[in-house]
Amino acid sequence: MSTKFTFAAATIAAAMVLAPLAAQGPDAKPKSADGPKAANGAWTPLFDGKSLAGWRGYKKADAAETRWKIENGMLTLPPNDGKDTRGARDIISIGTYDNFDLRWEWKAAPGANSGLKYFVLEDQPSAIGHEYQLIDDERHADAKIGPHRQTAALYDVFPAADRPIKPAGEWNTSEVRVHGAQVEHWLNGKKVLEYELNSPKLKEAIAKSKFKDIARFGTPQKGHVLLQDHGDQIWYRKVEIRTAAK
Q1: What is the CB neighbour count within 10 angstroms for residue 153?
Q2: 59 DSSP assignment
Q3: Rounded to whole angstroms, how far apart are CA atoms 197 and 221?
Q4: In this structure, are residues 147 and 140 in contact, taking their beta carbons and an 8 Å threshold?
Q5: For a Cys-Cys bond, which of 26, 116, 224, 235 suits 92, CB 3.0-4.6 Å?
Q6: How far apart (Å, rounded) are the C-alpha atoms in residues 42 and 13?
């Protein structure tokens, strides 16, 4: 084989290796830059934009008795119908999850109080789970109790910090990430809370909360996702999840 041919072949081979890297650009990020992903990296919609498929009432076979409606591709509750049915018409995902990324887009009506729960089991008269608080901090009385009951908090346990929150009536994006014992709450692209399941710090905070008598609260568990009917109007236009490899 001639020297010229060897050099040409080596040049072509090097170009084939370098071309894809150059196409990514100097600021390209690796595929894993946005955090752990499922085996196929796919997000699975929990809300299809058209129906309550994949959801049912708490301790119910389906969602027929709930107040949830689909309007213009959004999942919503109508304004309070005058009855105190808080908790009785929550909806839970049919699937259960223990290691996941969960994200959703939401907005609350002025003065509204609601929440999204995870780690929900059907072992109590009303649904108990870790609640990512969704509330009008400015107007609702519960938010005035303290930051541990304001938007993005682990409700009644830990407050969120430095929150880039948008006011009632405007869309926010929230996310919960559970990877092993580590749990994170995100709001509009920023991590605002992090805690560790079964940690002394979490146990101490739970002991001061309304969940102090729930033995399983704060421990790793596989549970449902829940959307709360607190009697107030709220909208979701996207709810999706991806399970993460342990």
Answers
A1: 27
A2: T
A3: 10
A4: no
A5: 224
A6: 33
Comparing C-alpha atoms, which of 207, 214, 239 is closest to residue 119? 214
**In contact, 127 and 58? CB cutoff 8 Å:** yes
Residue identified by tokens 């894809």 is 20
Say how far apart CA 183 and CA 119 lie, in whole Å: 12
The Cα–Cα gap between 76 and 237 comes to: 9
The CATH number that domain 39-243 falls under is: 2.60.120.560
Which residue type is seen at 163?
Answer: R
The residue type at 23:
A
| Span 141-198, pLDDT tens digits | 999 999 999 999 999 999 999 999 999 999 999 999 999 999 999 999 999 999 999 9
User: Which two three-digit tokens encode residue 218?
Assistant: 């704060």
Name the residue ranges covered by the structural domains of the chain.
Answer: 39-243
Query: Helix, strand or coil for residue 97?
Result: strand
SS3 assignment for 16-35: HHHHHHHHHCCCCCCCCCCC
Give the model confidence (pLDDT) of 200-236 as tens digits. 999 999 999 999 999 999 999 999 999 999 999 999 9
Mean pLDDT of the chain: 85
